[in-house]
């Protein structure tokens, strides 16, 4: 017989069939029961375990009974015995089958560990596990992802409640729990599939944890606390205080979640919360099909549109559609993907956002004209628009799924003079389904049917594809900029996906994001017919020209996804005196060419007949330079350009028209300007009867529209104006400064480095730097903190800057500590964190370049700098009170960087002096808050706990200590600042002393209560840090033994219990004195 043996891999399983045990040795199972397997054996030994011999013996006894009954002629007895025998034989046959066919396990139920026994192996599905050993105890952990395990556990718990709800006839709650369980089961399958992309897996985890927490809350189950990744916090590795704070955060989140669930305004809560927390967003759109019988080629211009302002807010995505109903480039079939990037929170806060598609057909003047040979071809004519309200998708309030198709109905132009821009306004302003309501090809999540016109549109679109023209698209809201979404959504956004940028800068401009795009919008015109009998069919031909009039090739881009071209031809409106085009194109030229180029607009009448059209020539022109004489770019906004008339050839002669005015003056100067320009110059004259308007938008990280900022960026050109330009920087608009953040910082540090032998501009450069840092600290530009961090780490290269920055900073501190007026000092203290980041980065680069040279000099300068800070804290002048408060607030923020280049123990000693030089009763609240930041810093956390300081913490709090041998020496170690002590040993005495003094104050005034609250927070932080140590090792080190003495001290509702062992303090317990506290907090420090 095969013996029972301990299992190695088969340790954890789930019952997949019901098994009814027979006898005490067998374990009955129900489907879904989780078992822990201990041993296994083969079928040969089963008979013993199942008492197979006893069954055989019972069968033999039954046979003897039958024989006796037959001899006694007892027919009822015989029949009864035969039935018993038949049952015994069937049972014997069943166990014979099991013994021969099945292996068996021995183990116990996980939910009832006392229920042990054997069960057939074939009834169990084995799950992979990992075995961890802790102190000779095996801990079996399932190999599946923790969240899937949590879902399983949750389903078991909810399932029991679900049954109780059914029995109690609570139908509404029963159905609610059932719906949540179905969701969790479906999501668990998706989690275990391992096929989800990274972004979808992240979204799914968010939905699962949100659903579990919400369900536990409404079912009044225990609250689950999680880390930032959604994993359940391990209480063995998390301090009690951290768990408490995590409970508070989780409660707030779940309460907010319940509000959202009840309002039903944000069904996709996971996406909504992620969109709300990110500064940059993108919209992915996949054009599935365009259904419309045109008969000619067409151009589809898709963009994002604000209907309230009636403006396009993104670049156009251009799809060239063929006359046969396919993309003109057949390889683009099923590959028409675009992502609209650079959307910020301001865009998400717009009242309405639409996805619009403007359709322009390319062909004859009149689509109904059948004489194709005589007609002029290639004319761009208005055809219609398609509009969809995507506000809820953009804001994350509606379902955002790349598999869900939306149908966008098409709206044709109704007349030849119906402008596309006007049609957009009419469609978006109208109400109901005609206003752009999209129709999904899927049913809604709840299976509800759409009614009315929407349902009719869907039927037509699905069953009669060409019955109703329109667009089929899918879309998904993505979180992040283009670099981030390519990492997070590689299955959607790849190298073939077209990128359509926002018309304007994103809210965050990262260093290295070099951009030089100029968007030109053809607004409108007013052209007299002159000798024509009817109004002209005006076509605008735009090109980018050099100073000699030659056209720059490939300088104009009509839309994202299209190849650049030499010239752009506008849409032609039939016999319209005042055409309104509202067409936007992008001009992209090298920055070095900007100064010498200009835009030229030619106006030409287009005839319907090809024979007449060939004879038509340009009848007028306009031009505009993109750069002003002072070196700044053309101002954003609309511009009324002068219309010049003359011979067609003269219009192409740059030397003729560049001497004439290019745009009209403001309204008050228009009359005088036009009267003076009536004469002809070089064969060209200004037309007073024609008007042409454009608008420009410059998106350049290298070219500015501000003269003051330009003077600073180009400071080498006029060094005599450097001081003036540095002073002017403070009055430059903040948006313009952050737009050119990298170039501005480069200019400041270049000035500093190129004047390294003098200090002429040091203070001016330092003040300018403080102004920029303060600007970024403003709430309006807070997202630029990441930009500044990236600049410091990746682009900053001034190796000598640290010397000048430390010198100016020390000068300001010394001046203020003497009570003298120093206007920039408060702004400087607020910017202290980034000033030190620049200092540390500069020193690091210097050290790398010169292999650690001048380290002693640097440390001495740093020490003197901190001594100047300490002198400020000692100052008794009234003018320094506010500065001392600022120093207490901002000094902790510099530690993370300073400790990387400065001795940690020396830094700790300087901090010790920083706090001790403040009078005891002065700024106590601010000191405690500052100390709390110090305790949470790496400087405090990274050092090992020492015995001397372990004593020092609570001896300061209690104010006394049981007398024992050597206590005076230990006291000296705690209160002194020994050079050999660790950082924590240096800092804790002054912290605990401050705590003791505040906690012992008897004043119950409101401000004292607030200060004691800060004390408790500081004490919590200290104990939280100390709890990260291995308590067992600490107690072993301290020789923890019997004979302990306990003391209790109560402060502001908290009890601190001290443990004394042979005269030494060995541990502490902290518990809140609150009613109803079932689980007091315990921390061993």
UniProtKB/TrEMBL annotation:
<dbReference type="InterPro" id="IPR042455">
    <property type="entry name" value="DOCK_N_sub1"/>
</dbReference>
<keyword id="KW-0963">Cytoplasm</keyword>
<feature type="compositionally biased region" description="Basic and acidic residues">
    <location>
        <begin position="445"/>
        <end position="454"/>
    </location>
</feature>
<dbReference type="GO" id="GO:0031267">
    <property type="term" value="F:small GTPase binding"/>
</dbReference>
<protein>
    <recommendedName>
        <fullName>Dedicator of cytokinesis 2</fullName>
    </recommendedName>
</protein>
<dbReference type="InterPro" id="IPR032376">
    <property type="entry name" value="DOCK_N"/>
</dbReference>
<dbReference type="InterPro" id="IPR036028">
    <property type="entry name" value="SH3-like_dom_sf"/>
</dbReference>
<dbReference type="GO" id="GO:0005886">
    <property type="term" value="C:plasma membrane"/>
</dbReference>
<dbReference type="InterPro" id="IPR035892">
    <property type="entry name" value="C2_domain_sf"/>
</dbReference>
<dbReference type="GO" id="GO:0005085">
    <property type="term" value="F:guanyl-nucleotide exchange factor activity"/>
</dbReference>
<dbReference type="InterPro" id="IPR001452">
    <property type="entry name" value="SH3_domain"/>
</dbReference>
<dbReference type="InterPro" id="IPR056372">
    <property type="entry name" value="TPR_DOCK"/>
</dbReference>
<dbReference type="GO" id="GO:0005737">
    <property type="term" value="C:cytoplasm"/>
</dbReference>
<dbReference type="InterPro" id="IPR026791">
    <property type="entry name" value="DOCK"/>
</dbReference>
<dbReference type="Pfam" id="PF16172">
    <property type="entry name" value="DOCK_N"/>
</dbReference>
<keyword id="KW-0728">SH3 domain</keyword>
<feature type="domain" description="SH3">
    <location>
        <begin position="8"/>
        <end position="129"/>
    </location>
</feature>
<feature type="region of interest" description="Disordered">
    <location>
        <begin position="430"/>
        <end position="454"/>
    </location>
</feature>
<dbReference type="GO" id="GO:0007264">
    <property type="term" value="P:small GTPase-mediated signal transduction"/>
</dbReference>
<feature type="domain" description="C2 DOCK-type">
    <location>
        <begin position="515"/>
        <end position="699"/>
    </location>
</feature>
<dbReference type="Pfam" id="PF23554">
    <property type="entry name" value="TPR_DOCK"/>
</dbReference>
<dbReference type="Pfam" id="PF14429">
    <property type="entry name" value="DOCK-C2"/>
</dbReference>
<dbReference type="InterPro" id="IPR027007">
    <property type="entry name" value="C2_DOCK-type_domain"/>
</dbReference>
<dbReference type="GO" id="GO:0007520">
    <property type="term" value="P:myoblast fusion"/>
</dbReference>
<dbReference type="GO" id="GO:0016477">
    <property type="term" value="P:cell migration"/>
</dbReference>
<comment type="similarity">
    <text>Belongs to the DOCK family.</text>
</comment>
């Amino acid at each position: 017989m095969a013996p029972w043996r301990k299992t190695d891999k088969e340790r954890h399983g789930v019952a997949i069939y019901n098994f009814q045990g027979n006898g005490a040795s067998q374990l009955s199972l129900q489907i879904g029961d989780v078992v822990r397997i201990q041993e296994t054996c083969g079928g040969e030994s089963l008979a013993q375990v199942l008492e197979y011999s006893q069954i055989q013996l019972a069968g033999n006894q039954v046979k003897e009974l039958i024989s006796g009954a037959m001899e006694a002629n007892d027919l009822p007895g015989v029949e009864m015995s035969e039935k018993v025998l038949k049952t015994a034989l069937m049972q014997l046959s069943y166990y014979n089958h099991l013994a021969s066919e099945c292996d068996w396990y021995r183990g116990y139920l996980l939910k009832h560990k006392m229920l042990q026994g054997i069960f057939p192996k074939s009834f169990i599905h084995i799950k992979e596990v990992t075995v961890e050993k802790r102190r000779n105890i095996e801990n079996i952990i399932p190999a599946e992802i923790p969240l899937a395990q949590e879902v399983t556990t949750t389903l078991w718990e909810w399932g029991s409640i679900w049954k109780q709800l059914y029995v109690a006839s609570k139908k509404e709650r029963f159905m609610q729990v059932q719906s949540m369980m179905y969701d969790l089961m479906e999501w668990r399958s998706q989690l275990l599939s391992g096929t989800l992309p990274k972004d979808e897996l992240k979204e799914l985890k968010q939905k699962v944890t949100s659903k579990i927490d919400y369900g536990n809350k409404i079912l009044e189950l225990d609250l689950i606390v999680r880390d930032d990744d959604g994993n359940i916090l391990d209480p063995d590795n998390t301090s009690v205080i951290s768990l408490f704070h995590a409970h508070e955060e989780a409660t707030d989140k779940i309460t907010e979640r319940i509000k959202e669930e009840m309002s039903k305004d944000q069904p996709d809560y996971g996406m909504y919360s992620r969109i709300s927390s990110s500064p940059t967003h993108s919209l992915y759109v996949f054009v599935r099909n365009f259904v419309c019988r045109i008969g000619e080629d067409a151009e589809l211009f898709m963009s994002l549109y604000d209907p309230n302002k009636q403006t396009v807010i993104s670049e156009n995505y251009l799809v060239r559609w063929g006359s046969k109903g396919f993309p003109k480039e057949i390889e683009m079939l099923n590959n028409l993907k675009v992502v609209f990037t650079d959307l910020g929170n301001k865009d998400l806060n717009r009242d309405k956002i639409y996805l619009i598609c403007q359709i322009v057909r390319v062909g004859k003047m009149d689509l109904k004209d059948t004489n194709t040979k005589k007609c002029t071809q290639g004319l761009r004519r208005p055809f219609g628009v398609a509009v969809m309200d995507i506000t809820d998708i953009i804001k994350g309030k509606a379902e955002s799924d790349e598999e869900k198709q939306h149908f966008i109905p098409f709206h044709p132009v109704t007349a030849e003079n119906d402008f596309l821009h006007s049609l957009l306004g009419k469609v978006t302003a109208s109400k109901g389904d005609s206003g752009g309501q999209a129709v999904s090809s899927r049913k809604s999540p709840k299976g509800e049917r759409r009614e009315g016109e929407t349902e009719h549109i869907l039927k037509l679109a699905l069953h009669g594809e060409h019955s109703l023209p329109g667009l089929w698209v899918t879309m998904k809201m993505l979180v992040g900029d283009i670099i981030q979404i390519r990492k997070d959504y590689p299955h959607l956004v790849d190298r073939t996906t077209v990128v359509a940028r926002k018309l304007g800068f994103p809210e965050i401009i990262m260093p290295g994001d070099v951009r030089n795009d100029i968007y030109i919008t053809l607004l409108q015109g007013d052209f007299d017919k002159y000798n024509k009998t009817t109004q002209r069919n005006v076509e605008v031909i735009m090109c980018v020209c050099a100073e000699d009039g030659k056209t720059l090739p490939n300088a104009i881009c009509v839309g994202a996804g299209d190849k650049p071209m030499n010239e752009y031809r506008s849409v032609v409106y039939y016999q319209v005196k005042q055409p309104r085009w509202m067409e936007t194109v992008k001009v992209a030229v090298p920055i070095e060419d900007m100064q010498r180029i200009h835009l030229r607009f030619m106006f030409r009448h287009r005839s319907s007949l090809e024979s007449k059209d060939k004879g038509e020539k340009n009848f007028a022109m306009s031009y505009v330079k993109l750069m002003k004489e002072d070196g700044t770019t053309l101002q954003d906004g609309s511009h009324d350009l002068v219309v010049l008339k003359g011979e067609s050839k003269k219009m192409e002669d740059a030397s003729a028209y560049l001497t004439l005015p290019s745009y009209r003056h403001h309204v008050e100067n228009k009359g005088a300007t036009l009267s003076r320009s009536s004469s002809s110059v070089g064969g060209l004259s200004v037309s007073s009867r024609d008007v042409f308007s454009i608008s420009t938008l410059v998106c350049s990280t290298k070219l500015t529209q501000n003269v003051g900022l330009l003077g600073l960026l180009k400071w080498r050109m006029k060094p005599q104006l450097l001081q003036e330009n540095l002073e002017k920087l403070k009055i430059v608009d903040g948006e313009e400064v952050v737009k050119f953040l990298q170039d501005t910082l480069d200019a400041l540090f270049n000035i500093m480095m190129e004047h390294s032998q003098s200090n002429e501009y040091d203070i001016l450069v330092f003040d300018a730097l403080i102004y920029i840092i303060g600007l970024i600290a403003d709430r309006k530009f807070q997202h630029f903190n990441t930009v500044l961090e990236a600049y410091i780490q990746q682009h900053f290269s001034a190796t000598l800057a640290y010397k000048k920055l430390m010198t100016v900073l020390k000068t300001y501190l010394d001046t203020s500590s003497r009570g003298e007026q120093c206007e920039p000092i408060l702004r400087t203290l607020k910017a202290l964190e980034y000033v030190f980041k620049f200092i540390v980065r500069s020193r690091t680069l210097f050290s790398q370049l010169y292999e650690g040279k001048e380290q002693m000099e640097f440390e001495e300068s740093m020490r003197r700098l901190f001594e100047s800070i300490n002198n400020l804290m000692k100052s008794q002048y009234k003018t320094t009170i506010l500065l001392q408060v600022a120093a207490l607030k901002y000094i902790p923020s510099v530690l993370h960087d300073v400790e990387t280049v400065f001795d940690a123990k020396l830094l700790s000693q300087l901090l010790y002096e920083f706090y001790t030089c403040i009078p005891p009763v002065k700024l106590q609240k601010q000191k405690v808050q500052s100390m709390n930041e110090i305790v949470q810093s790496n400087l405090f956390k990274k050092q090992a706990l020492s015995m001397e300081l372990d004593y020092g913490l609570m001896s300061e709090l209690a104010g006394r200590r049981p007398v024992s041998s050597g206590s005076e020496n230990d006291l000296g170690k705690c209160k002194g600042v020994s050079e050999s002590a660790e950082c924590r040993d240096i800092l804790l005495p002054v912290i605990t002393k401050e705590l003791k003094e505040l906690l012992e104050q008897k004043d119950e005034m409101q401000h004292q209560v607030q200060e004691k609250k800060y004390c408790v927070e500081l004490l919590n932080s200290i104990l939280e840090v100390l709890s990260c140590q291995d308590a067992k090792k600490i107690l072993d080190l301290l020789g923890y033994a019997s004979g302990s003495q306990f003391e209790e001290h109560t402060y502001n509702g908290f009890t601190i219990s001290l443990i004394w062992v042979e005269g030494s303090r060995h541990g502490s317990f902290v518990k809140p004195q609150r009613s109803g506290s079932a689980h007091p907090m315990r921390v061993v420090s």
